[in-house]
Amino acid sequence: MTYDSDRIEALLDEGVRDKVYPGAVWAIGDATGIHVQGITGVLDPNEPDVPMRDDTIFDAASLTKILAVWSSIGALCEDGVLDLDQPLGGFWPDVTGHPLGTVTARRLLTHTAGLPLRAQLKNLYGTDRDDVRRGVLHEQLHRPPGEAVEYTDRAALILGYLAEHLSGQPLDDLATVRIWQPLGMRSTRFGPLPDDIAARCAPTELDQDTDTHLKGTAHDFSARLLGGVCGIAGVFTVLDDLVAFLRYMLDTSTAPKRAGFGPAWSATSLTVQTSTLTPVRGLFWHPAPGTDPADGVWVHYGFTGTGMWISPHQGRWAVLLTNKLYYTRDRQPLTEVRNAFRGLCFT
Fold this sequence. Notes:
By secondary structure, this protein is an alpha+beta fold. The chain is 33% helix and 14% strand. It is built from 12 helices and 11 strands. Helix 2 (64-79) packs across helix 7 (171-180).
C-alpha cells in the first residue's frame, strides 16, 4: 500500500492553520485494518488546550445516507422484500396513486427520481412529523424520472421511510440491529446525544438560538425537525466505527457478525448505475472527484466536514473527519483539502 503519510499530515495541519476546520481525524487502511492514521488540531477553538482525539464523535451529516439508509436498503434487498426496479406504488400504499408511486428505489439511490431539489420541509409542510411525511410522499416531481442526475436529500428521506415501512421498525432501530451492532459499531447512533456523550463531540455551527456551537445535536435542520432521526442526517459516529464499516465492505469476514447487507450489495453499489447520464452515480456512492469511474475510487461526503472513500479495485479505504462547519459553510476550502487527501491516499 503506497501513500505519503508525511504529506498527508502536512496537508491536514495546514488546514488547521488556515482555519478550514478546527481539527481532523483521519485513517487509511484495507480489509485487515488501519495502516496509518493521524489527528490534528483541537476539538473547539474556544478551548485551545483540548486536542482533537481519535475517539472524537462527529456529526456524520450525510454519511447517515450510507451508514443508515444505503445499508438498511441493502439488507432489505438481500432479504428479498425489496425489488429495486419495481415502482413504489405497486407495493407501498402510502404512495400509490401519487407521483412518487411511479418512481423506483433504484431511481432514488441514483438521484434520478426527479424529486424536488431542496428540502424546505418546514416551509412546505409545517412542524408535525406526520404532516411532513405525508407531504414528502405525496408531492409532485420536479421532472420525469430518469431524465437527469440531481442530488437531493429527499431521496434518502424517502428511502428511510420506505425502509421503515418494509421492516416495521423505526430507522434508528433497523440500522442498529441490522448494521451497527453486527459490525461492532458501538459508538454510532442517531442523536440528540446524552450530555455525557455529547461532551466528546466535535462542535459544528453556531446555533443562533443559544449562541453556542452545536454539540450532540444534528446540524441538519431537517433531522432536528424530525426529532433527530431521518434518512437525510442525524447519525453521530467515530473513526473506529467507520473503519469497521469500510473493512466489512471490502471483506465481510472481518466483522464479529454478518450485517444485513453483503458483498453483492456493495459490488453493485460501487459500479456505474446511471448509464449515459452525468454526473456518474453508483447506488448513493459516486466516483471521487478528480478520478475516472474506471479508477474505482468511490466516495460519500457529509456537509459538516466528514467523508469516506473506498476502492475495492485497490483494496483500500480512507476516512477524513473534520468539523469544518464550525467556521464556515463555504465548501471550497475543504473541497481542495479533500481532493488532495484522496490523491495522497489512492494511487
